[in-house]
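Sorry to interrupt, but I need a hand with the structure work. Go ahead and set the record down below:
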Amino acid sequence: MNIWKPLFLLAFVTGNSAAVVVAQTQPLTLQDALKTGLTNYQSIKAKENYARAAGENISATRREFLPDLNLSAQNSYGTVNGQNGPMWGYKGWTTGASGPALPSQNWNSAFGGLYLANISWDVVTFGRRIAKVELAKQQLNNSNADFEQEKFEQQVRIAGAYLNLLAAQRLRKSMESNLFRAQELQRMIVSRALNGLNAGVDSSIANAEVSKAKLSLVDADTYMQQQSNKLAEMMDVPPQDFILDTTFVSKVPNELLETITPQDSTTLKSQPLLKFYNTRIDLSQANQQFISKNVMPKLSLMGVFQTRGSGFNSDYSAANLSSYSSGYWDGINPTRSNYLLGLNLSWTITDLWRTHSQVSRQHYTTEALKNEYNQQYHRLSQQLVLSEQQLLNAVKKYKEAPIGLKAAGDAFLQKSTLYENGLSNIADLSQALYNINRAETDRDIAYNGVWQALLYKAATVGDLEVFLHQL
């Protein structure tokens, strides 16, 4: 996943970017950016709804084992010709006629009515019900872990985009300062060249330095716009010119400078990614347990109450074919009732073989998920060591950058003074101009790099408070 990669800003990237400018009156803090992103981002909303659906699935699963109660009322009109002989209704409907087997077909018709109440309840499932509810609970745990993992990843993405944009804005200011210095030197060099104090080629070199500084500023603008759009995308807001909190480029935590050591040990217990992978294992094990229960028998309670009406009288027969009524009420009025109560124990013996293979299949799936968990754990453990080393290196760069900037500034002042007095050449002055611009860039990256390294470590251990409590 990309969020685990180091977020250090190393170079400008060119490209085109369109922006819709939205007025911003107050600086956007990182906390506000995180809150906005968590509220707006659609993938987080999707994961949240999946988790809610899994919660509702627990109730739905419990209700699957409630008794099945069916009520039915049927009115019909037709003949009652009976016939001796077997029949089989295959892939279709058949009719039932409870009439006498007459010697020939006749078309006497009347109404009939059937009214019944049926209840069926699996009173004993031999663990199947409990296993299925437990499976639904593990599905909820898995969905919740996925939701929390998505929120954490999005927070890391937002924080990374925030720091990258802040670094891009800071680098743009450095490019502006570099352009200003190049233009000041250009005016001085051109003036001296016109007065014959310096070679004419020096003015051409000065013009080239100004042009190079302008191109660098354009690249900085392009990269800053790209990072601004990236932050807007992570927050799910329209692209705009963000005003950010400059804390991350003005200081680093003193506590961090005092306590960070190469042996700094942090556990991965709160890592959301590992929690998610662990819930996948639990879910697979619960599914395996549920499958194993399918081999058990099932004890069901059943009950039926039925009442009927018919337009054909009890003495209707081949000898008395006129003993019926075609009246509607005569046919649907119930006159005969029956009830039935019973217990049904059913056991599909062949499930012993089917279920064995299904359980084995799920067992290997569980083992595969454990392998993936171990792989992620080992990767994060190694990444934790790397993140701590990178944080230590970032602090070293932070401490070294001001020294280099001061030295470059002194050298630039010296070379410009010497050149102005005819004691140095344009090549030395151009190199000094390049060195101070590079030193300013290194300073900007060094400040931001400490926060980026700290964010990288927080992303690795799965606890953003490691980063946020330093603000």
